[in-house]
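Dear colleagues,

As part of the handover before I leave the project, I'm documenting each prediction I ran so the next person doesn't have to rerun anything. This entry is a single chain, and its sequence is reproduced below.
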Amino acid sequence: MASATHPLWRGTTPLVLASKSAARRALLEAAQLPVETLAVDVEERALEAEAVLRGAAPAEVAAVLARAKALAGSALCPGQLVIGADQTLALGEEAFHKPADRAGARDQIARLAGHTHALHSAIALARDGVVLFETVETARLTMRPLDANTLDAYLDAAGEAVTSSVGGYQLENLGIHLFERIEGDHAVILGLPLLALLAFLRRHGDLT
């Protein structure tokens, strides 16, 4: 299926991204991979609760959710490679979720300020109900200390976007102003271990 648009792709059908994440789709498209998106119905909080009861750490929770999304998508797209992805944010072993409102975002950022937290990004690739590949990669981000005025100024500038991402920030936008150190791959920070995915696709024969 190589073309001028996707010159390195050797697969017979496009990849399917079982996610509505614009950032993940943009990463795949920037790598000139053919990709379609599909919303899947996965009970994320229930799966997470079950995993936590089994003693799963935040990185393992991300893997469980990515796998569930890939399998759910593969059931709807026979014959196609389906990508499931998920990301968890953890301060130590405490996992965070998307804030419900500005107050929730303010509380999360205040708790992260001055500390290093982890972003665990998981990916699973499935076809016809079989997981062919999965991995979890971690980035570590150190947020600078923030006083109340600085925090409120950020929340005012970011607006409703603070509720769209766990931790109350989007690193690719205004959220970058909150940080003093970042350790990790940019794609992993955005929620997709892209280098690992590309390596698998080459081994699998779908990429040159």
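The beta strands are 15-17, 35-37, 82-91, 94-96, 116-127, 130-143, 179-183. Residues 99 and 163 are 5 Å apart (CA to CA).

All the best with the project,
I.
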